[in-house]
## 1
Amino acid sequence: MTTSMAEMAKRRDLPVWRSLLYVPANVPRFIEKAHTRGADAILLDLEDSVPAGEKEAARGAVASAAAHVRQGGADVLVRVNRPLALCVRDIEASVCAEVDGIAITKVDGPSHVRLLDELVTELESERGLPLGKTRFLLMIETPEAFEQMTDIARASPRVAAMNIGGEDFALNGGFEPTDEALLMPKQRMILAARAAGVMPLGYIGTVADFSDWEKFRAMVRRSRQFGFDGASCVHPGQVAIVNEEYGPRPDELAYAKRVIAAADQAQAEGRASFQLDGKMIDIPVIERARRLLARQERVEARAAARR
């Protein structure tokens, strides 16, 4: 991290969300087992997976559903609807002790984020909750929002993460939601999130195809290489793979420890660069190793808190 990014991340105290498992808020049989799936976060959905006629009942069940799905140690977010009238009712039902964040769909711009921040702040105050408790996951789904991503991510200290809703973004952008067509937008989103000090979430490929687990794993591994910190899961079987691939792997940790040990020795000898396994190691490689080890510490701390 640059100094400014490190300061932002520290101020925001970003959570560990490698995997975020979607669970329709209106389907009890999915809610019943969600806490056993091992996801870092559960995304209770009030939006696309809930029919219009069931949204009111789903909204009324959020607090009890959140209390149930978090018993395995996962954070809980609620994906809310647009238009604003539905969004406000969703948020009023979701700001509670059992909910850690709101996934805001179809973000318009920075003022949209600030408006919802104001609403959430009022609700936290009225309900005796710690101010700032409720984090935001921002979903970029229109070309207009895409052009303002960095400002959107900086619009509120509640913002913890950002992603691109591929299907809606492609629809609104007038192109097919193929991996190739979405590659550039997703790369730009990653950089915008990094510039704002928040987590970029998502995949380079599609999350919908879980017919071939090895193919899915390869896609997730490639996605991490592009810079994503975590991603949503639409099937419980995806969770373990996403956790493994978006967390440091044993071979990476072993190599990172060797890099740091060699760097410490080189520094003691007055050198800033050195060779390891026939490769030149300098400051960016050392810093990457430090970040990897720091991420593993946070993953382990999360796992310990769940036990």
Note: The CA atoms of residues 7 and 307 lie 30 Å apart.
## 2
Amino acid sequence: MPEKPRRTPTGAAVLQPQITTAVTEAVMAELATNGYARLSMEAVAKRAGAGKSALYRRWPSKQDMVIAVLAEFSVELAEFADTGALRTDLMASLRALHEWLTHSTMATILPDLTAEAGRNPVLAEAVRTTIGEPRRALGTQLLRRAIEREELPADTDVEMALDLIAGTMFWRLNVRHAEEGPDYLDRLADHLLRALNAR
């Protein structure tokens, strides 16, 4: 007896690509406009032109949706090629970090999300594990390669080095809001290499 054709489920959790893109843009826009605390699934669905139920089928909560969208955007901007040398690897990393911190929407979202995470331990842990750890893992690879090439001392404190690389730029751009200058990344790379005792 021939099988009956399967009916496409109406409640599929996978969104169409164009809807996924619209939702991603809507989440970023809502975060930039209203902040994490005031963002709602309803507002995102309305802005994206999607059904609220479609969002809930994919993400059970606002936090899950926000973290998923930000993680995809943030980790993608941390990826860069292995150039074979510490300075050029570092410059690629700094350019990617700079693009992330100065992105027109992310520059507004990040301070608000950081403040909200300070009040919400569950959100803080989600940000750390889905955004922070993957980005730091890429940075760790960069430093480990440099250690293997003997461009950095074997006893380099990788965790401290990662804080130094990211924290310096974050402080200048997102806390001090200081001027950069056209050669900012080059000068920063030179200072970091000296601080890391690079050979």
Note: Confidence is low (pLDDT under 50) at residues 1-15.
## 3
Amino acid sequence: MTQKITVVGLGYIGLPTAVMFANHGYQVHGMDVNETSVQKLQNKILHIEEPGLSEKLEKVIDNGSFTVSTKIESADIFIIAVPSPINDDKTANLEYVRSASESIYPYLKKGDLVILESTVPPKTVENIVIPEIQKSGLDIGEEVFVAHSPERVIPGKLFQELIENDRIVGGINEKSCELAVRLYKSFVKGTIHVTDATTAELVKVIENTYRDVNIAFANELVKISDQLNVNVWEAIDLANCHPRLNIHKPGPGVGGHCIAVDPWFLVELCPDLANIIHLSRQTNDSMPEYTSKKVLETLEKNNIENGKILVLGLAYKGNIDDMRESPSTEVLKNLMISKHEVVAFDPHIKENQISAQTQNLDEALENADIMVVLTDHNKFKEMNPEELNGLLKNRIIFDAKNCMELEKWKKAGFTTYTLGNSKES
């Protein structure tokens, strides 16, 4: 008999995960509180961007193995994949996790498995999920089984990494681990590592915190290099020639639902111990203001007053439509309070999310004094300098991601600058 899975939360992780299971022999029901998203999915229309998702979604809806609604349905396995953002005071907001856990307990029966996939602070399964599902009256660990298995994927390569990456499964007991491992083996080709729930929670937060600290180091080098009049990108590339170094790339800040958020979980849990982590978060959070300051200094250096700034890129990383925690939005806020006109364009963000945004790149380019590249979309990298002749009033590029092959722009007569290189590039 085919097992049924109910996935709670159909966002950037929940939807691809649900579709993956539906393509691998399970009957899957997806539930989300966003009525607009649900209606789109019922009509096979995506509300997120991910290569390969549209085709896989259409297949499982057409063959009946995937259904979607705003209501929970009974199942053998419940997967919680809801957001776990931070509050304004940088503390974890676990209300979505708590609410999702509460919503499933009336549907639980003996033998069911509950898996939390959301990235959460350690002890969330113990302190939030289990108390809510205990309301079912069933014996947790004996009649209902619980595990945490955090996603470890990157947008843009999500299906490939769901299959190929190693997976962490942390159960509350041996039986919970056994059931969760059996589930994920339906498509995971990487090694599945078994541990307890709290360790699994910590592992995912460690992974993202490591990257945040490394990026903070690179961003601190940006500021030092500006003081020393050195090109930070060249310095980092040369340093990484050392066989035991892997310095990450700097940039205008850190975004996304993981790296910009998860380290705060450890700061909140252990404020007296997470000193390096806290400083790294502050360093990365300072970069949008630093970037906007450098853009304005570039305009001043070129004697441009009351100019037009074109910002290219609103997503937090290249070739996706995800704006969560994107540093681009903070850079824009800082630029928009200057005396300059500001317009923003992102080919992956199809509906205007901010007042400065436009869907017409040619209009945005017209009479612009400077192009500021904040996201390394392929569309930007592939731009032809010759095609911009007559559009840009002043031929200046400020490349905060160092992604634009600036030599070709210089040959075309553009003045080019990068973040972390106070000289003209």
Note: The first strand starts at residue 4 and ends at 8.
